[in-house]
Automatic annotation (TrEMBL):
<feature type="signal peptide">
    <location>
        <begin position="1"/>
        <end position="20"/>
    </location>
</feature>
<protein>
    <submittedName>
        <fullName>Uncharacterized protein</fullName>
    </submittedName>
</protein>
<dbReference type="InterPro" id="IPR038921">
    <property type="entry name" value="YOR389W-like"/>
</dbReference>
<keyword id="KW-0732">Signal</keyword>
Length: 314
């Protein structure tokens, strides 16, 4: 990771130098302009972009994941997350919850969706009673932790590895560290909220016509089922976050990004990745020492005041 950072700084300096010196990017470099490149291990005239990167190198993976955070497609394709990033959900953000258990607003750990099309799927009730759907507004900047990948998909292939490290304790530990939400991605982005009353207020709690989805039994009441309609709506809402800039209502602190591809922080995963394609990389199998190091790093970055851009540059 240190060498990655060093390379990034060098690259930035090189670009800045090239821009300020107005040197054209052609293969015919004036000899004196090449002195600058003596910082690099290799002369740029000898870069071969077709050459595969070094075995075990992960710098490319760190950059690629950082470049695709909170974007739905990249995290569906490469669904086993390797990144944890703190962030903020700003005041005024509207969040949604469909109640499975009747007219009860959650008080303890439960989820909210970023889109009502997503939460409506969980608005359950009989045709007679209808179902209950809550809308919340964030009233204080809410600190969250984002787990990348398809991190809420309940499948056995490792999408929950980074949370499985200590899932039961995650909220307890989070609340002690000022974290009130865990951002994950299922069919769309959602936030597991640790305390529903500390950072949000109820805007509405509506008794709606039950969407009558055939989730548990697709042969059930086909004549009343709105399943196809809702499936389309949820896929459509997901498509808004498919690519860059992704889910912009969660503002990440990139300076606090923790990557399981950081080979200084998590050396135990290096041998486990040998010979595997990127989508087969797992975090399961990490050593207890490395887990401890990741937790220490997380505690360290959470102690600092968050560094988030004051303007949306996208
Ligand atoms: C949740 O937040 C409220 C308001 O800040 C607080 O009174 C309550 O004790 C919190 N509950 C837990 C379990 O921390
Ligand atoms: C599914 O619904 C159909 C039609 O209502 C019913 O005949 C069948 O027994 C149900 N199956 C299950 C597993 O509930
Ligand atoms: C890659 O990592 C494996 C496992 O740690 C190691 O045995 C191998 O020598 C490494 N290869 C290179 C080229 O560094």
């Amino acid at each position: 990771m240190r060498s990655v950072r060093k390379a990034a700084v060098c690259l930035f300096l090189a670009v800045e130098r090239v821009l300020t010196a107005q040197i054209p990017l052609s293969p015919d470099y004036p000899e004196e302009s090449l002195d600058f490149y003596s910082h690099f291990e290799r002369d740029p005239r000898q870069w071969d972009l077709d050459e595969p990167h070094a075995v075990n190198a992960t710098g490319n993976l760190v950059f690629e994941t950082a470049n695709s955070l909170l974007q739905h497609w990249a995290n569906t394709r490469l669904r086993i997350g390797h990144t944890i990033v703190p962030g903020i959900v700003p005041v005024g953000t509207i969040l949604y919850h469909g109640a499975i258990t009747g007219p009860h607003i959650p008080t303890a750990l439960d989820w909210v969706a970023m889109e009502p099309e997503h939460s409506m799927v969980f608005c359950r009730g009989s045709v007679e009673t209808g179902c209950w759907h809550a809308t919340f507004a964030v009233t204080r900047p809410m600190k969250v932790l984002y787990f990348d990948g398809n991190s809420a998909a309940k499948i056995p292939e490792g999408t929950m590895d980074t949370q499985d490290l200590r899932i039961q304790d995650l909220c307890k530990w989070g609340l002690q560290n000022g974290i009130n939400g865990l951002v994950r991605m299922e069919v769309n982005f959602e936030i597991m909220i640790c305390n529903f009353t500390s950072h949000m207020e109820v805007v509405s709690f509506s008794n709606l016509d039950s969407p009558r989805l055939a989730i548990d039994n697709i042969t059930d009441q086909p004549e009343y089922s709105n399943t196809a309609h809702h499936t389309f709506e949820i896929m459509h809402s997901t498509s808004w976050r498919e690519n860059y800039p992704g889910e912009t209502r969660i503002i990440l602190d990139y300076s606090a990004l923790i990557s399981f591809y950081d080979t200084d922080l998590v050396p135990s995963l290096v041998p486990r990745r040998v010979g595997l394609e990127r989508w087969d990389h797992r975090v399961a199998g990490i050593s207890p020492e490395d887990i401890e190091r990741v937790e220490d790093r997380l505690a360290q970055v959470l102690e600092r005041p968050p560094v988030t851009a004051s303007a949306a540059w996208t």
